Amino acid sequence: MALQAGVLVSSRVSDSRIRAILGPTNTGKTHLAIERMCGHSSGAIGFPLRLLAREVYDKVCKLKGADQVALITGEERIEPPHARYLLCTAEAMPRSANERAFVALDEVQLGADRERGHIFTDRLLHARGREETMLLGSATVEPLVKALIPGVTVEGRPRFSTLSHAGPVKLSRLPPRSAVVAFSVEEVYRVAELLRRFRGGAAVVMGALSPETRNRQVALFQSGEVDYIVATDAIGMGLNLDVAHVAFASLSKYDGMRHRRLMPSEMAQIAGRAGRHHQDGSFGTLSGAGGRDSAFTEEEIYAIEQHRFAPLTRLFWREAEPRLDTLDNLIADLERGPDDPALAPAPEAIDLAVLKRLSDDADIGGAVRGRAQLRRFWDVCQLPDFRQQGAEMHARFVARLWRDLKDGHLGADFVAARIADLGEVRGDIDTLQGRLAAIRSWAYICQRPDWVLAREEMAARARGVEARLSDALHQRLTERFVNRRTAILMKSMGKDVGLLKVVLEENGQVTVEGQVIGHLEGFRFVVDADASHEDRKLMLAAAEKHLPQLLAAKAAALVASELGVLELGRDAAGAPAILREGQVVAQLERTREPTRWRLVLAKDLAPLDPVHRARLAEALEVWLEGKLAPLAPLRALEEAAKDPEMGSEVRALLLALVERNGSVRREESGVAAIPKEKRPLLRQLGIIIGTLDVFQHALLKPAARALLAQLGLDTRPLNPRMEAVITPEGPLPAGYCRAGTQAVRLDMAEKLFRSAHETREKAGQKLGGGSFLMDAGLPTSMGLVAENYLKLMREAGFRATEPQPLAEGAFGPPAPRLWTWRPPRRDNPVNRPARGEERKSRHPRGPRGGYTPAGTPREVKPAARSPLRKPDGPPPGGGAFAGLADLLRK
User: Fold this and answer.
1) DSSP, residue by residue, 810-850
2) Cα distance between residue 146 and residue 312, in whole Å
3) pLDDT > 70 in the chain, percent
4) What are the pLDDT digits (tens) for 768-820?
5) How far apart are CA 356 and CA 370, in angstroms?
6) C-alpha to C-alpha distance for 739 and 227, rounded to whole angstroms
7) Smallest Cα–Cα separation from 40: which of 104, 95, 88?
8) Residues 6 or more apart from 221 whose CB is under 8 A from it?
């Protein structure tokens, strides 16, 4: 586009080599541009941020070698002599066409930005590659790209992952790997401070930070040292982060002119940071932020999730090559508007505001003479306002700089002194940020080829000071907004104990992942005295979760050194005790709670001094807790039975399970009275409501049964190995139910019943329905004899027919058994007939029902009343069988 006689004349022509790759964030546009550039002999890419340019520069250096790649920004220049690939900011991007084979411009929609839009518009119109030109940006700029560049090829790219609205969330419930976006420094600091107190801290990213500090803060988040990052809207410009959720602290911002609500496209640019590649992301707001703009509207949610936004109507334009014969002509050209309807005159940027202010100063503007001096003066006025102090204050700095530059160069000693003045690394965050902004100004000055003597040396010094200030600022931000100890504790809450590095030091200090959380006084954990009030609860929780194994190890070492090897056993009177080589070390007295015991040291230890005796007793208590660990499920039932919110029915069942050591007959459990909505509470406690029994599954393990027997809590016979099926000799062992001459462990019997019900349901047989087939493979694999299997299943309501004999002369396997099912009445005593009352039936019962096949009563022997249960206790099978048996005995 050229200026002729004050009229903007379009020199744009159709060029099929220009491609516009437009779409939402996380579509791989930048990655595609890098691949395309590296496929050409030379290339250049312009970025909106120095940080992005540096990130891509590092990537291309790995691909092509550092001697082939250049980095040019306002504050940094790395230019190898034979560099073929250029990564730069949009301002430093070459305007001329065809100098390189490939040229790309990132975030072209920034042509609508009030401050920098004219720069992006100019590069959009003029920056071209010999072989290929690529424009990257949002789909909202598509109509303008087509209008400004006839024949451009526009390609859309879908987002790799899904972006969905998650609604408002409290800061205390913010999910890990989240970014919180705020639009003022005060709000950023407030949110980061709250995250430090409650979540261990957050990284902080703001536009006012130097790129080095931002890199360090981003690395803090990327490495997982903190799970949260708090940022301004600078996060929306291509920072590649592993963010799963973006939370907006506010939906409005001050744009330099007024306080306004974000546009949906701006919201999407920021929210789009959530989700990387094919990992889905979410966005929402922080609840409790307040204000009328604290929630997304339905229209905004739809637009962001579907990536549908109103197209841009214009891009800002300013003459990029104004006349440099007089100040008046220079200003007039910079203020002139375009004739193209797709373009709008750029608002007054800070460089133009400074130019106009200084031109009104007779001592400055009046002394500018000649084209060369005017060009130099205009270059000085374009010094970026890194301090963000506004046009008036920035104009004063530029005026002082011009007075030193108008007649030549800045002396090396003068520049070195200014740089050294800014090298002090002491001070708070705001002080260091001010120094960083100032040193960035001097870094920019030192990059200019004709402004400073000994330019390369001064530029190196400026970069060195910037690096030291960045390190110091990163340290201050980390000290203020990251509590490493809290962060480690928060993460450890959800980890497997075995994966954490929990260490008890020789001096008694307890550390988690290298961070001291407290120390042990004997066997009592004491929180670190330096911990804040907010950290104390976390540390106590961490200690409760991670210290038992350390305490057990310490107790074992102490006991071993004092007493040797110990074991649980019985004393001469048969009471439970702790023994050492058969000798009683301590007796165990039962308390009101079955799983809790009072430890009483043996009289032989009375001569010990009180301090040593207390220390030994404490070690024995910790040792005992470790030995009683298999009974933790029973203790959980005890604790739950104390909770009034469980309800009386559930508590009654829990007390019965505790009293009977983990299992109770179903007909005696009262489970029928428990409401359905309460039954999930039982499942959470590991309780299984079986067909014949209600039991706690974990208490069927060998260690738990052995411990119950050792402590005398369960006097029934013990089967040490707790096999699935056994043939008992004598009374029925604990944890089993009878099956004819064999016994089946309760959980395995329930497995058989459930398998039978699943088979019945698959066959489509309901209550009172027809017969069905069952596979006898499962009971056979357990070792259950067929006859005993039939007796066990009959207890659960399943009946099997006798196999039909083959016809005479026929060969082959016998016909399989057919099964039917009718539920046993165990849960509802109301349905049971009264004792002595005969139950009438339409169908003759088999031997278990008390009838012969002909329908006449037969004698039922008392010893045969319950082949599946031990003789003591109520008869199995419900009241119907009990009443019939009583009737026949008369």
Assistant:
1) --SPPPPP-EEE-----S-GGGSPPTTPPPP-SS---GGGT
2) 12
3) 80
4) 567 888 888 889 889 999 899 999 999 988 888 877 777 777 776 767 788 88
5) 18
6) 57
7) 104
8) 202, 203, 227, 228, 229, 241, 242
Q: Measured between alpha carbons, how far is 638 from 659 in angstroms, rounded to an integer?
A: 10
Task: Kindly give the pairing relationship between strand 343-345 and strand 502-504.
Answer: unpaired
CA 117 to chain centre: 38
CA distance 461 to 452: 13
What does 287-301 look like in DSSP terms, one character per residue?
TT--STTSS--HHHH
What span, in angstroms and rounded, lies between the C-alpha atoms of 690 and 797? 13
Q: How many CB atoms lie within 10 A of CB 572?
A: 7
Choose among 383, 373, 376, 390: nearest CA to 445: 383
The residues, ordered by sequence, that sit 6+ positions from 524 with a Cβ below 8 Å of its Cβ are none
Helix axes 185-199, 455-481, angle to 10 degrees: 50
Q: Whose CA is closest to 744, among 791, 677, 808, 776?
A: 791
Angle at 186 between CA 182 and CA 187, to 5 degrees: 30
Residue 40, both tokens: 């050409």
Angle at 46 between CA 42 and CA 50, to 5 degrees: 120
533-584 pLDDT, tens digit each: 556 666 666 666 666 666 666 666 656 666 667 788 888 888 888 887 777 8
- Taking the C-alpha atoms of residue 214 and residue 53, their distance in angstroms, rounded to an integer, is 14
Q: How does pLDDT run across 296-315, given as a tens digit for each residue? A: 999 999 999 888 888 999 99
Return the pLDDT at 759.
Answer: 87
Q: Of 479, 364, 465, 384, whose CA–CA distance to 429 is shortest?
A: 479
Radius of gyration over alpha carbons of the chain, in Å? 41
Sign of the dihedral through C-alpha 384, 388, 393, 397 = negative
Cβ contact 115:350 at 8 Å: yes
Walk across the sheet containing 515-521 and list its strands.
Answer: 502-504, 509-512, 515-521, 524-527
| 41, burial (CB in 10 Å: exposed 0-12, middle 13-18, buried 19+) | exposed
From CA 260, how far away is CA 114, in angstroms rounded?
A: 14
- Where is pLDDT greater, at 233 or 360? 360
- Specify the pLDDT at position 768: 53
* Parallel, antiparallel or unpaired: strands 228-231 and 203-205: parallel
CA 746 to centroid of chain Cα atoms = 40
The answer to whether the pTM exceeds 0.90 is no
Q: What is the mean pLDDT of residues 875-880?
A: 39
